[in-house]
Specification:
By secondary structure, the chain is of the alpha+beta class. It has helices at residues 2-16, 87-112, 127-151, and strands at 36-41, 44-54, 57-62, 68-71, 77-84, 156-161, 165-173, 176-184. The chain is flat, with a radius of gyration of 29 Å.
Length: 185
């Protein structure tokens, strides 16, 4: 009997309560003013200095353009600059990408020029050997070119700042009431 009364009480309370509560205010991320940030909201992105954050908003002075003030609820991504990549790291990254692209292109080239056993073979008469030689040659050239290009750039490194969005949902269930806490980052 007591269990039935408690269930009835919960069902009445659930019916009286709104089905979905509004999301709680988004706390301001802990980022110092003047920090170089990259802010993404919708399909737009701004890179610049953080001017102000708090009260559910963030203000950024982009490198190019006027001051931008956004609600934190609209911000899908907030990142802080961690400095520039070292030249050696950038060269290694560029070389790795160039090596992979060059090797893949070389393998395709090697397969396409395969002589098929004719006496006028370009390098070797076996498709597999041509693919291996093409991969090695073009992979090496691509790696060298990629390292050279990578060393000439120093891309900025970014670290993501997490802020939590929460909402509570209360829904009637078969046996009483169900509640869920939804967290978004």
């Amino acid at each position: 009997m007591i269990v039935s009364l408690m269930s009835l009480h919960l069902m009445v309370a659930a019916a009286a309560a709104p089905a979905v509560q509004e999301p709680s205010p988004v706390p301001a991320p802990v980022v110092a003013e003047g920090t170089r940030v990259r802010v993404t909201a919708g399909d737009k992105r701004w890179v610049g200095r953080l001017v102000e954050s708090g009260d559910g908003t963030v203000s950024v002075l982009p490198d190019k353009g006027p001051l931008v003030r956004l609600r934190l609820a609209d911000v899908s991504r907030l990142e802080v600059s961690r400095g520039r990549m070292k030249m050696g790291d950038a060269a290694m990254r560029g070389g790795s990408i160039g090596l992979l692209i060059g090797a893949a292109g070389g393998v395709l080239w090697g397969v396409s020029v395969s002589g098929g056993g004719s006496p006028n073979c370009l390098v070797l008469c076996n498709t597999g050997e041509n693919a291996a030689v093409g991969g090695l040659i073009f992979g090496g050239l691509g790696g060298a070119l990629g390292a050279f290009v990578g060393a000439g750039t120093s891309p900025e490194k970014w670290g993501r700042v997490e802020h939590v969005r929460t909402s509570v949902v209360v829904l009637p269930q078969r046996r009483g009431v169900g509640a869920a806490l939804r967290l978004g980052f």
